[in-house]
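Key result, reporting period 2: structure in, sequence out.
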């Protein structure tokens, strides 16, 4: 019992989270359920070429879309919907929010520049 009382101050001062919200979002973005978002959406959500191929109509490119400017609601809808290419990940809204916040913070300079460009018209 005395040992527990000795540890009590340390437990009360300890942070609740083992990793930060940003780190959690980064972890989910890079490895949510076996296939990471970066494979198709790029390192920072900018989108990237998934595959190039030729068919009877010529050269085709399958590209993951740029998701840096997507709204949280749009991301939640996309992750929890069925698509022709993107798998459904079954992430909670809180997990998608962590990914969204991670991308917003990681791309803050890009998003600020983009906003400035829209207001100088």
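The corresponding designed sequence is given below.
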């Amino acid at each position: 019992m005395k040992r527990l009382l000795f540890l009590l101050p340390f437990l009360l001062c300890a942070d609740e989270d083992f990793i930060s919200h940003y780190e959690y979002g980064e972890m989910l973005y890079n490895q949510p359920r076996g296939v990471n978002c970066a494979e198709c959406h790029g390192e920072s959500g900018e989108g990237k070429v998934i595959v190039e191929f030729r068919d009877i109509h010529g050269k085709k490119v399958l590209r993951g879309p740029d998701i840096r400017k997507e709204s949280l609601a749009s991301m939640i809808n996309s992750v929890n919907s069925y698509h022709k290419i993107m798998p459904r990940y079954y992430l909670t809204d809180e997990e998608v929010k962590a990914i969204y916040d991670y991308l917003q913070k990681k791309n803050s300079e890009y998003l600020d520049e983009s906003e400035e460009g829209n207001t100088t018209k």
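The radius of gyration is 20 Å. The chain has a mean pLDDT of 84. This case is discussed further under Risks and Mitigation.
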